[in-house]
């Protein structure tokens, strides 16, 4: 498995995975991913034998010394989950945020216990609740934050 910048030719696969991973919500389209790349956001793909099996994206904004980052998305093909790919993608996003000394924010479904545990393991804390954030399901989301330069844990992926 290798991480590298997300390729435009893989955006269709991203949209396919979105439909699988977020079927009860409003999954991102191929054009939504293209817009993210057009805006210059930091997107990575996880590849196994040249097949995209995961993706993650981060935006970084602000003036030097006052930067913020936001995790826009993170998804892993169900056939490749629980193998540490999501954690590797997250670590790469956090390393990029740390390069800019940026605090990091994200939203996560309140019922996604495994994602919440992963984020907490990497220094995120819950700072708020967004009621009916996800549509059309109306599921709530926690807003989570990680301070700037919190560092990426050096412990091994489990």
UniProtKB/TrEMBL annotation:
Domain named N-acetyltransferase: residues: 1-149
Q: Which residues form a coiled coil?
A: none
**Which GO molecular function terms does the record list?**
N-acetyltransferase activity
**PROSITE patterns this protein is in?**
GNAT (PS51186)
Keywords, alphabetical: Acyltransferase, Cytoplasm, Transferase
* Gene3D superfamilies membership: 3.40.630.30
User: Which InterPro entries does the record match to this protein?
Assistant: AcTrfase_RimI/Ard1, Acyl_CoA_acyltransferase, GNAT_dom, YpeA/RimI_acetyltransf
Q: Which PANTHER family match?
A: ACETYLTRANSFERASE
Q: Which family does it belong to?
A: Belongs to the acetyltransferase family. RimI subfamily.
Put simply, this protein is called: Ribosomal-protein-alanine N-acetyltransferase
> Where does this protein come from, organism-wise?
Actinokineospora alba
Lineage here is:
Bacteria, Bacillati, Actinomycetota, Actinomycetes, Pseudonocardiales
């Amino acid at each position: 498995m290798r991480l590298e910048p997300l390729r435009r030719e893989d955006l269709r696969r991203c949209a396919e995975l979105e439909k699988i991973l977020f079927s009860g919500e409003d999954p991102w389209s191929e054009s939504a991913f293209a817009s993210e790349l057009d805006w210059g956001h930091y997107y990575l793909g996880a590849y196994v034998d040249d097949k995209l099996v995961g993706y993650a994206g981060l935006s970084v904004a602000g003036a030097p010394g006052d930067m913020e980052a936001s995790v826009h998305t993170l998804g892993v093909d169900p056939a490749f989950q629980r193998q540490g790919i999501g954690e590797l993608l997250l670590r790469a996003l956090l390393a990029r945020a740390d390069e800019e000394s940026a605090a990091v924010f994200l939203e996560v479904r309140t019922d996604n216990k495994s994602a919440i545990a992963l984020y907490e393991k990497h220094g995120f804390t819950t700072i708020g609740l967004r009621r009916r954030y996800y549509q059309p399901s109306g599921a709530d989301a926690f807003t989570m934050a990680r301070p700037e330069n919190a560092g990426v844990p050096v412990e091994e992926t489990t």
